[in-house]
Amino acid sequence: SAMPGDSVDKENMITCTAPVNIAVIKYWGKRNEDLILPINSSLSVTLHQDQLKTTTTVATSRSFQEDRIWLNGKEEDISHPRLQSCLREIRRLARKRRNNAGPGFDATALSHKVHICSINNFPTAAGLASSAAGFACLVYTLARVFGVEGELSGIARQGSGSACRSMYGGFVQWIMGQQEDGKDSLAQQVEPESHWPELRILVLVASAERKPVGSTSGMQTSVQTSSLLKHRAESVVPGRMVEMTEAVRRKDFAAFAELTMKDSNQFHATCLDTYPPIFYLNNVSHRIISMVHRYNRHYGETRVAYTFDAGPNAVIFTLQQHIPEFVQMVQYFFPPEINGGQFIKGLSVDQAPLSEEL
Ligand code: ADP
Ligand code: DP6
Ligand code: CO
């Protein structure tokens, strides 16, 4: 440890958090693997950071020999192309900034290596968008360390496609873009969180296990083998993007909910249409789907919607006034069973309000 008077290396360390986002119009399939350019636009809701979030610390120091990263306490391979893309692009912006800025700009970090430490407070790779919160947080924190500002969703996108949408709060679209270089494939806020304060999100955790097929490789196989996916991207999603944006603008819950459920179901249908097929939903997921439809049918009105990403865990949308009754029903149908002091069955219910801006 350093004694007073010893020369201490100047260290720069910043910690930031980023929220998960859940797509209501799903992204599934790339037209360019390296730049991460999608075959369709998508639209999501960013969760509040109190619930599902990534916390990332980035330190720079003259004494660091290499860039390194630890994920949930375990060192990962920094040479992963997506990590390299994010580091390269942020440093490129930082050099640009340094070259344009006057002598007041502190560019010390640019000559240093970084150590990155990232922790998710929820299951990683279980279909709860850890790659979205993870890469959004990485890019945001790196930008702070290197003094970079401005549009960063294009860099987050190169870490994980869904990550570009976590750079904004509220309702966010990722416009697929047309350009070969991907410069117009960016996220954009559709409405802020404050637009629809009555909307509530519940996360029902059916399994915290790592999914057997990651999103990246799953969608690759789908692009190669599913004609349903091609049809969806070309002929279904463009219309749904317009309808969904309108439903959100009007705060039309029934329209929002029905589109959300249909899009989730079509996404999982493309997974089944993939060869060999990919199964992300399990029995609990199927029971949740039936329960939601039964609930809505009982009231003759669409009060609750489900959506599932690439995993069995349900994300439920409803309005504030229906929360107590719905949660009671979930606990009735999925009671926690105690076995040796451990909860082995039942769903953990998490209430997550929407997010402010990052
Ligand atoms: P998910 O449904 O959780 O997004 P994916 O298959 O899309 O699952 O991505 C999981 C991968 O995302 C992890 O294996 C890891 O490589 C990356 N990832 C997850 N969390 C972080 C994080 N906090 N920082 C950097 N990368 C992360
Ligand atoms: C089902 O963004 O995780 O959650 O771009 O390969 O990292 P990569 O994939 P990822 O895919 C997310 C797929 C999804 C739908 C969505 O979030 O839009
Ligand atoms: Co992901």
TrEMBL record:
For this entry, list what GO says about its biological process. Answer: cholesterol biosynthetic process; isopentenyl diphosphate biosynthetic process, mevalonate pathway
Q: One GO CC term of this entry? A: cytosol
Pfam families in the cross-refs: MDD_C, MVD-like_N
Q: What is its EC number?
A: 4.1.1.33
Record keyword Lipid metabolism present: yes
Diphosphomevalonate decarboxylase-like N-terminal domain location is 18-187
Pathway assigned to this chain's UniProt record: Steroid biosynthesis; cholesterol biosynthesis
Enumerate the UniProt keywords alphabetically. ATP-binding, Cholesterol biosynthesis, Cholesterol metabolism, Lipid biosynthesis, Lipid metabolism, Lyase, Nucleotide-binding, Steroid biosynthesis, Steroid metabolism, Sterol biosynthesis, Sterol metabolism
Per the record, what are the reactions this protein catalyses? (R)-5-diphosphomevalonate + ATP = isopentenyl diphosphate + ADP + phosphate + CO2
Q: Where is the Mvd1 C-terminal domain?
A: 201-358
What molecular function terms (GO) are annotated for this protein? ATP binding; diphosphomevalonate decarboxylase activity
Q: Which family does it belong to?
A: Belongs to the diphosphomevalonate decarboxylase family.
The task this protein performs is described as: Catalyzes the ATP dependent decarboxylation of (R)-5-diphosphomevalonate to form isopentenyl diphosphate (IPP). Functions in the mevalonate (MVA) pathway leading to isopentenyl diphosphate (IPP), a key precursor for the biosynthesis of isoprenoids and sterol synthesis.
Protein name per the record = Diphosphomevalonate decarboxylase
**What's the source species for this entry?**
Sphaeramia orbicularis
Q: List the gene name.
A: mvda
